[in-house]
Design a protein that fits this description.
Blueprint: E1 3-7, H1 11-22, E2 26-31, E3 42-43, E4 52-53, H2 60-63, E5 80-81, E6 85-91, E7 94-99, H3 103-109, H4 114-126, H5 128-135, H6 146-157, H7 160-163, H8 170-180, H9 193-206, E8 210-211, H10 216-228, E9 232-235, E10 250-253, H11 257-264, H12 270-278, E11 284-293, E12 306-311, H13 315-326, E13 336-339, E14 353-362, H14 371-381, E15 389-395, H15 397-403, E16 440-442, H16 456-471
Helix pairs in contact: 1-10, 1-16, 3-4, 4-9, 8-9, 8-13
Length: 477
Amino acid sequence: MSTAVVVGSGPNGLAAAVHLAQHGVDVQVLEAADEIGGGTRSGELTVPGLIHDHCSAFHPMGAGSPHLQTLALERYGLRWRWPEIDCAHPLDGTDAALLHRSLEDTVAGLCDDGPRWHRMFSDLASGFDDLAADLMRPVLHVPRHPLRLAAFGPRALAPATVAARWFRTRQGRALFGGVAAHAYHRLDRPATSAVGLMITAAGHRYGWPVAEGGSAAITRALAAMLAEHGGKIHTGVHVRSSADIPTADVILLDIAPGAALTILGSALPKRVAKAYGRFRHAPGAFKVDFAIDGPIPWSDPACAGAGTVHLGGDFDEIARAEREVTMGRLPDRPFVLLGQQYVADSTRSRGPLHPVYAYAHVPAGFTGDATGAIVGQIERFAPGFRDRIVAQATSSPADLAVDNPNQVGGDIIGGANADLQVVFRPRIARDPYSTGIDGVYLCSASTPPGAGAHGMCGYNAAESALRHLRQTGRTLR
């Protein structure tokens, strides 16, 4: 029987392990922490009984993942739960812009920009599965749906600042800008529309669900499926060098390129080592988890039904804030993503106490305290929020990196979406998962298609590993 070792038990590591085990490979997963999950862990971060997500929280790409959909993870306890409204974007002095799973409801709410929103997203939403089949694979491949890609390409390659001009109202531009800001890069750069287009299209196709009981349910389900196929997970195992990895036919690393460089050392070909050493990480996140008494007192009551709330004002303010972050400055009003997971999943609350998740985009290497700026942005659109706080837990970029070493400097997306790296990550190669060492692959969010609890980085890397096993004459199921 062929053997595999997977280092790291985030959703990509576990997705890779499951795919290999399904093909008859004897798999063991090594996890340094005492708990599996990486960025998809959940727990009581503020007061007993309230469930907070450590990092990954809303899962349009998870629900729409071409790989996860084939696994029927509901058999292992995963339950998706949807809020009434996927995302709200409040604005000063006017109604909030609202993103619904229903394209028609979103269009109706955007009034004058409704027809433009429909023209921008209707084909992307209806063709999302075809797009995902191509875009969630390595860039260098023969496309399965070339016409879909041809229609998507010009929109995706445009800077978000250019794409936003398509909309005529503050609501339309702000709603698009808040989702585009998930690119974690200044919005006047090429291809910064791509992330916003795909996340929005995924939302119109699958919604922005949460996992019942916390995002940890995703990795618990994957772990249960792996165990059913004979795979084993070992926690508390630190891999600091290749000597710490048991001998196996294939090795997959759910780690950042810099960590792979440290572990594999001189065994890496020089060109790969150079590329991993040059790999750029995204700006950081500064996260605050709140326990609040009662719901958030939004000025626009519609925001109370939204799972995600983007706090950044109008499009120009968001673009300005993202530009300042990439230039190393904390804006007075940073872009803040706030999560009200409890509106979709009541199991996370206890009586009148609710968990609230919020993080701000901050510069790489930020060592200050952004708590006041985050609370200020919430108070701006929900006066009286501060008075409802019962407890809070802060996580600086350094704290996030300690909690999960893949979050280098607080980078929660696995690498900067900048320049060529937005397309070719972690390096320019026909097989971006290959480390250049026979049978050793990188499968973290630093590989295509990037961030999100979709498991596709792991699946794609496992496909590369399976090809290697076949080419070397190993017997597979």
